């Protein structure tokens, strides 16, 4: 009897896997051709596109590989903050609850030794001279963080989520929260909350899971920039049929170009889209132009 049960379970697993594979589309030839171009041949590309309306996965590629997220990591940080603190939480002017001297936020953040200085930029240092937007509600704070990809703002959040007021404890709290939601955080590595550390790692699938988990959270969705109109995607998809129809977060460093968020397709369905490219040798402008083409190609 036990052997029969094991055989039945194995058969059901095979059938389930086959059905799942049949529900996923084969990538169009234009996408395959793009990956074969000289600038993309040595790149790592993760893709996961899910039809949230129909509950169906359209496309996946290398979705379980750990890759550098750049500022897509802000989705992990800001999503957890909204869930753990609530959108009406008012941002304090300190981040260490046990600090009796009430040291201002920038003094406690400082520089993270895991950041690469060339990725930080000189503007980051000047931003540390002032407390970022103390006194506003968290929903507005996170909208500014994600829409404009503000590193200082994102870096403050792990401290607020930690009872000890420390970065390591805050990052652990974030990962533990997503674990409790059933997300696969096995490959998640966080050295900061903003994505500047070169050793940060996510999987495309984790970001896709997070988007599905947060799809009905208005504060989270409203924090994302609107393609062709606002924030870091002000020019992305502007002259296309998807202008104004995509709410996205970008991730960009010298080695990363990434987009993740929600797209309202031409068929009226809502899609979660994650596309992460590491180590392409193409210029950034060409990368963005080609990724625009892929969005239009892959979203019905």
Task: Report what the structure shows.
This protein is an alpha+beta fold and 300 residues long. It has a single domain (26-298), classed as Beta-lactamase. It is built from 12 helices and 8 strands. The strands form 2 sheets. The protein has a 6-stranded antiparallel sheet with strand order 2-1-8-7-6-5, sandwiched between helices. β6 and β7 form a beta hairpin. The protein is globular and about 50 Å long.
What is the rounded distance between the termini? 47 Å
Determine the fraction of residues in helical runs and give it as a percent range. Answer: 40-55%
**For the largest beta sheet, what order do the strands appear in spatially?**
2-1-8-7-6-5
- Which architecture would the CATH scheme give at its second level? 3-Layer(aba) Sandwich
Order of helices and strands: HHEEEHHHHHHHEHHEEEEH
Q: Spans with pLDDT under 50 lasting ≥5 residues?
A: 1-23, 97-108, 122-130
Provide the CATH top-level class.
Answer: Alpha Beta
For the record, what is the CATH homologous superfamily label?
A: DD-peptidase/beta-lactamase superfamily
Here the CATH topology equals Beta-lactamase
Continuous helix count: 12
- Give the averaged pLDDT, no decimals: 85
Count of folded domains: 1
The whole-angstrom Rg is: 20 Å
What overall geometry do the principal axes of the alpha carbons give?
globular
Outline the secondary-structure elements:
Layout: H1 2-22, H2 29-35, E1 44-51, E2 56-61, E3 66-67, H3 73-85, H4 105-109, H5 117-120, H6 122-127, H7 138-148, H8 151-160, H9 167-180, E4 202-203, H10 204-213, H11 218-222, E5 225-226, E6 246-252, E7 256-264, E8 270-278, H12 284-298
Antiparallel strand pairs: 1-2, 1-8, 3-4, 5-6, 6-7, 7-8
Helix pairs in contact: 3-7, 3-8, 3-9, 7-8, 8-9
